[in-house]
Amino acid sequence: MKTLLKRFLEDETGATAIEYGLIVAVLSLAIVGGVGRASNAIQFLFSDTNSKLANAFAEH
Questions:
Q1: Per-residue pLDDT tens for 37-58?
Q2: What are the structural domain ranges in the chain?
Q3: Half-sphere exposure of 51 toward its Cβ, with a 13 Å CA cutoff?
């Protein structure tokens, strides 16, 4: 039993897969956050441009 426990504690075969999984999770969160911020910026850009165009056409 002691050798089985020692072998289990020294086994690191699954550690790499877990590390890659954590890296993928962090990158996914960063991408989702970045896309959300970019979407808000683009939406503001077009809404701001649209209102300026509407005001320009309304004045003439």
A1: 888 877 776 776 666 666 677 7
A2: 1-59
A3: 5
